[in-house]
Amino acid sequence: MLYSVVNPPPFVDARAELTAPKQEKALLETAVNLLVPSATGDGEFHGPSINEFFPDVIFFADTPFEINRIILIRFLSVAVLMLVFWLGTRRMKVIPTRMQSIAEMGLDFVRVNIAEDLLGKKDGRRFLPLLTTIFFMVLFMNVTGIIPFLNIAGTSVIGVPLLLGVISYGTFIYAGVKKSPAKFFRNSLFPPGVPPALYIIVTPIEFISTFLVRPVTLTLRLMMNMIVGHLLLVLFFSATHFFFFTADGGFKLFGAGTLVFGFAFTLFEVLIAVLQAYIFALLTAVYIQLALAEEH
């Protein structure tokens, strides 16, 4: 991604005072371009494009290990996540430090509100590492969508949502088979209490909803929310850039409105980032609970 750079002149003369406002405007345009990559200065408004989710390769081009901007953001998210919990757990004390308190609050939130609330203490503690990893991995990758200079969520491309969806689905199958090896698939496809004549209708529906739809909905729900959030933020801030620096006359006033909406949706996107992490971990726990149910 290219950004313009404003170089100061090699000398200063009497004309510098006349060009100073133009230089300040150019500096401000450059700052906005850094924060809003899709804004352009060709005199026309350019809204967000789906191409932003397919950035150019930065390292290892034309190899199976190609790394682009979004993958670097994923690496950064995981590194920060590991650093936060390392700082919070490296020296555990009876009277916790600030970082230890933050780590314990996060872990307790997942343990109490997701794992033990749905699965009970025994099974909740059993699957707590998985649920905790899913929650915080999704959360940290979602939040990058509102951080300046990153500006896109690591979960806005299908790779990570699909991987987590498959892991959630595989855990559901594992839990069910281990709990009831002989009854899990039978009870899932042929629910007890249904008249035998209706199995010709019920069984295909159960197969699709239980074994096909669940990982797909987990993947698409997370990915599409992050895509839409990114496009909305880019739209508002690109429009702000256009109205302030390109539009003429009274149209510049619209920039104040789009700027306010941009900041409002930024706060809303924080809520969505947390909510989507919670929903993904919660649904994973719900599926595990269904697999461990007595009728299986």
Automatic annotation (TrEMBL):
The chain crosses the membrane at residues 70-89, 127-150, 156-177, 197-216, 222-247, 259-288. Keywords: ATP synthesis, Cell membrane, CF(0), Hydrogen ion transport, Ion transport, Membrane, Transmembrane, Transmembrane helix, Transport. CDD domains: ATP-synt_Fo_a_6. Gene3D superfamilies: ATP synthase, F0 complex, subunit A. This is ATP synthase subunit a. Belongs to the ATPase A chain family. One of its GO terms (molecular function) is proton-transporting ATP synthase activity, rotational mechanism. The keyword Transmembrane helix applies. The gene is atpB. Key component of the proton channel; it plays a direct role in the translocation of protons across the membrane. It comes from Cryobacterium frigoriphilum. It is found in: Cell membrane; Membrane. It is a multi-pass membrane protein. Its main location: membrane.
